[in-house]
Amino acid sequence: MDLYARIASIPGWLSKIDHQILGTILRMQEEASAPGAIVEIGTHHGKSLLSMLAASGEAANAYVIDLFGRQEENLDDSGRGDLERLKSNLAEFGIREDRVVIDARSSFEVTPGDIVAGVGRARLFHIDGGHHFEAVANDLQLAIGVLEPNGVLAVDDVFRAEWPEVSMAVFGSSTLAESGLRIFAIGFNKTYWCRSEEAEACQSALLADEFLGSSVRRTCQIDESPVLVFKRDPLPEWRLSWLLGCVIELRYPRVFGACRRSIRRMRSIFRRNDG
Ligand SMILES: C[S@@+](CC[C@H](N)C(=O)[O-])C[C@H]1O[C@@H](n2cnc3c(N)ncnc32)[C@H](O)[C@@H]1O
Known about the structure:
Blueprint: H1 3-8, H2 16-31, E1 37-41, H3 47-54, E2 62-65, H4 83-92, E3 100-103, H5 112-119, E4 122-127, H6 133-146, E5 147-156, H7 164-171, H8 175-178, E6 181-186, E7 190-195, H9 196-208, H10 210-213, E8 218-222, E9 225-229, H11 240-251, H12 253-274
Parallel strand pairs: 1-2, 1-4, 2-3, 4-5, 6-9
Antiparallel strand pairs: 5-7, 6-7, 8-9
The chain binds S-adenosylmethionine (SAM).
């Protein structure tokens, strides 16, 4: 079974596009022997964690933070972490226990020193914990405190209308800009930052991936730097066939991607023949 199909069977939230972006970045870092661990706030049952670990070498470690049994502190009910399910999913995917440091606390209690003492600094930091303003603002500071200079930051639900608190925490302060990070890609549900010097390499790696290369919707400019956008939201004005395409893309991303690539290839052959 293909990896995403296995990952998709775990309860939680991870689109094929974000699975592929996270995996591509981690494989690129692996090839460059980039130092650092994977750090995640909000691990739930381990869906995104397993996607990231599967794309990393055997030597890669992770530090994961989730309230787990302390759900009364989960103020916005953004998923309910479950430690036993996480452990059984890690075992099912053959991940050695010593590769993952599990910190079953609120991210408000965790310091950069705790993470560095557990796994060192982060080459990929994924924020997907509490979705209210204070939690996201806190988690951004934590991420900046431990990110390797060439590390990548991924934040969930930045452009999702249901969670304006996340957008406000991300863009309502200069925390990220002051730390020298810039957006290089907007995935399905996650937004990705790195330092300017790393952006071109990250974007080239994403475009070189067959699935992602054919999934880019547009390239926009933010602060005069290009940003790859991988998502578009359906509108009521859309033709029925486009809306149907949207549903197929969501439920069967591999099939949709393969069809789109074939159509593009056929179009380019017809264009060449016409010319
Ligand atoms: C949206 S879920 C994470 C989804 C997960 N990344 C996946 O791949 O399915 C959010 C998680 O954050 C946890 N959480 C909420 N507030 C938190 C906090 N202040 N500190 C740590 N974890 C928190 C919840 O227990 C929940 O498991």
